[in-house]
Design goal:
By secondary structure, this protein is an alpha/beta fold. It is elongated. The protein has 7 helices and 14 strands.
Length: 369
């Protein structure tokens, strides 16, 4: 089934399909954001003050003008649950305050913090040539950050300009200009395990139960447009991250639909979890064929993905013909070493079993060179 065929099916299916799904299938190609150009402007430094020590009935005293405060910096930080499609095109930090009397320095301008998802690459963007420059940072961990534009320095107050010949200087400095630059952000989701499957295979439901993530869940395809990353708490109090990736279809490796956009996220997962719908529609392939299609798409896109450890999840086992399809799938298990196990979307007992299996899989990966 092609993307176009699935969109046509989606428009005819589900209680909200006629109005909502047509718009979603159409806007998916427009709203999906994993690459973004932004402009950042650091704050201007505050001006130095021109002030003198004055007392009643006394002549003008020595200069006491304080220095201006530094302008705010622009900082990019990796934060869980952040999304690139929520980031605007322009960002500016606040300027520093001007200096005060009696040597009082101005307050530093507030920094501008831009939150991006973990796994974001930050590049310098050359605007006139419309080219991507050198990489500035790979924010692959929660809390990792980089200062992408530094604020201007504060201007000096007039007390710095006093000399023997000029004890009452009336000149001071303006604050320096903050850095201004264009940046190119690219998201490649970082996760220990990536959920791979066709649209509507139940990946979001699985992630919602075994982790703290709250992906959008619905009974029709194209629900997941942007990747979601959840943190799974394991029995030994360690954690592993699981990414719900947008669904793939045959032809993704040839960039059909958003194929390359979605496949790029899989490259930065350590292991794969193929989620198979055990009760597919009549015009959809059986679970084993689905698995073969998914593997082939990954192989064509990047052959190294075939070396990643993986597991299979037989999902939607409470639907018709699921047990029959599971038995057929079990007969194929001898073609690979990894284990498969059934799961029900709404039965947490079985999903907890999948959580334990993920725990074992994570430890097995750590033992591998």
């Amino acid at each position: 089934m092609t993307y176009s065929e699935l969109e046509a099916y989606a428009q005819k299916t589900g209680p909200k399909a006629p109005k909502y799904l047509g718009e979603l299938a159409q806007e998916q190609r427009i709203r999906y954001v994993d690459r973004l150009k932004i402009q950042v402007q650091a704050g201007t430094g505050g001006s130095g003050s021109r002030a003198f020590d004055r007392e009643k009935h006394k002549a003008e005293g020595p200069p006491t003008g304080g220095d201006g405060g530094r302008g705010g910096d622009v900082i990019i930080m990796a934060t869980d649950n952040a999304q690139l499609n929520r980031i605007g095109p322009s960002h500016q930090a606040l300027p520093g305050e001007s200096g005060g009397m009696r040597g009082k320095s101005g307050k530093k301008g507030d920094d501008k913090l831009i939150r991006v998802p973990p796994g974001t690459l930050v590049y310098h963007y050359i605007k006139p040539a419309r080219k991507i420059g050198k990489i500035l940072a790979d924010l692959d961990e929660e809390g990792s950050s980089i200062v992408v534009a530094k604020g201007g320095g504060g201007g000096r107050g007039n007390r710095h300009f006093a000399t023997g010949a000029n004890r009452s200087p009336r000149n001071s400095e303006e604050g320096g200009q903050g850095e201004r630059r264009w940046l190119y952000l690219e998201l490649k989701t970082i996760a220990d395990i990536g959920l791979v499957g066709f649209p509507n295979a139940g990946k979001s439901s699985l992630l919602a139960v075994v982790s703290n993530a709250k992906p959008r869940i619905a009974s029709f395809p194209f629900t997941t447009i942007n990747p979601y990353v959840g943190v799974v708490e394991l029995k030994d109090f360690t954690r592993t991250t699981v990414a719900d990736l947008p669904g793939l279809l045959e032809g993704a490796s040839e960039n059909v639909g958003l194929g390359h956009e979605f496949l790029r996220h899989i490259e930065r997962t350590k292991a794969l979890c193929y989620v198979l719908d055990m009760s597919p529609l009549e015009n959809q392939p059986d679970p084993w064929t689905t698995f073969q299609i998914l593997r082939e798409e990954l192989r064509v896109y990047n052959a190294s993905l075939m070396q990643r450890p993986f597991i299979l999840v037989a999902n939607k086992m409470d639907l018709p013909k699921s047990q029959e399809n599971l038995e057929k799938l079990k007969k194929r298990k001898s073609t690979f070493r990894e284990r498969s196990f059934p799961s029900w979307q709404k039965r947490e007992k079985v999903l907890k079993d999948s959580k334990n299996r993920s725990d074992a899989s994570s430890k097995e990966r750590e033992r591998r060179p």
